[in-house]
């Protein structure tokens, strides 16, 4: 193909490249990593981790057992 054929489409190609750069259609790896960190930080603020939920379940079970022991002791010492 002749270079003159490329020169015919050069203005259109330049406009397309400038439009893509101006509207930020293509993203750099650094910008993508930055956005990824922002999303991860937002998720950590909004949602509890599975480990934290399991820990709370264990603590709730321990609290329930202690309340049951106190209730049984109260019934035993102050029963009818």
Features:
80 residues; mainly alpha; 3 helices; rod-shaped
Strand content: under 5%
Gyration radius from CA atoms, angstroms = 33 Å
From the spread of the alpha carbons, the general shape counts as rod-shaped
**Helix amount:** over 70%
The average pLDDT score comes to 88
Number of helices: 3
Task: Describe the 3D structure.
This protein has 80 residues and is mostly helical. The protein has three helices and no strands. It has helices at 3-22, 29-46, 50-78. The radius of gyration is 33 Å and the shape is rod-shaped. The N and C termini lie far apart (105 Å). The relative contact order is 0.04. The model has no long low-confidence stretch (mean pLDDT 88).
Could you give a quick summary of the protein structure above?
This protein is an all-alpha fold.
SSE arrangement:
Blueprint (H helix, E strand, L loop, with lengths): L2 H20 L6 H18 L3 H29 L2
């Amino acid at each position: 193909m002749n270079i003159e054929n490329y020169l015919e489409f050069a203005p259109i190609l330049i406009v397309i490249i400038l439009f893509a750069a101006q509207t930020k259609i293509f993203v750099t790896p650094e910008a993508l990593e930055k956005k990824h960190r922002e999303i991860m930080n937002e998720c950590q603020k909004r949602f509890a981790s599975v480990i934290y939920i399991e820990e709370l379940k264990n603590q709730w079970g321990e609290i329930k057992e202690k309340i049951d022991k106190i209730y049984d002791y109260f019934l035993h010492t102050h029963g009818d």
